[in-house]
Amino acid sequence: MRIVLLGAPGAGKGTQAKKLIEKYGIPQISTGDLLRAAVSAGTALGKEAKSYMDKGELVPDMVVLGMVEERLKQDDCKKGYILDGFPRNTAQAEALDKMLESLNMPLTGAVSVDVPFDDLMKRLTGRRTCKSCGQMYNVYFSPPNKDAVCDKCGGELFQRDDDKEETIKKRLEVYTAQTEPLMGYYKGKGLLKSVSGTGSIEEIFAKICAILEGK
Ligand code: AP5
Ligand code: MG
Prior knowledge:
Oligomer: single chain
Radius of gyration: 17 Å
CATH class of the domain at 2-26 and 79-114 and 167-212: Alpha Beta
Bound molecules: BIS(adenosine)-5'-pentaphosphate, magnesium ion
Strand content: 5-15%
Number of strands: 8
Structural class: alpha/beta
CATH topology of the domain at 2-26 and 79-114 and 167-212: Rossmann fold
Order of helices and strands: EHEHHHEHEHEEEHHEH
Strand order of the largest sheet: 2-3-1-4-8
């Protein structure tokens, strides 16, 4: 299973990817998570990336492509992979195709999680993430039992720097202009399947699994 998860900011790509890891035992490659790790580590790449992320803009393609290639070459990706938040524009999608061809691990599918734009703002402003285990919560839809504490591991919950209303608006604009056209790109290759991303996390997960298992 070698797939791309497509969808707007807040559509639930990360939430669903975490469940897919558990069920299928293949790694998630989230460029957003990789970039945030570089920001936290204070590397030169992280410092450069942060200036774009804080504005809600895309980080330059070269930075992201290098990171993804390095990650795909790791052993665990031989079993398959879930790309989350990558590619983000046509140039990245074309570069990915070339990269995967040379690594002999082409995509087997692209799954788009579709959520009406009106729902995304609340999902993003309400999101909280565990610093220790990465478990995601939402103060409106799926709050933790104890305020700011992870139910799973007791870790501290944080709010992402780019989950502010103004930055979210910009991220949604960037998505419409640069990322949404990828639906057509993967449809043209016969790889695209879409699921509605409204409803419970479990319902959406069941639909994605059915697609992946060809049911
Ligand atoms: P990235 O981290 O990829 O963020 P994003 O695409 O904006 O998507 P999100 O992570 O915000 O949303 P998600 O779909 O994962 O939703 P989630 O599952 O968390 O990118 C961040 C930045 O990094 C970019 O702006 C850019 O600067 C840079 N970047 C990253 N990749 C790049 C690339 N390839 N090229 C260039 N730059 C790049 O869910 C959201 C919330 O909703 C959670 O609270 C969750 O609990 C809740 N939720 C989930 N499902 C449901 C449901 N069914 N019902 C109700 N609530 C739900
Ligand atoms: Mg995410």
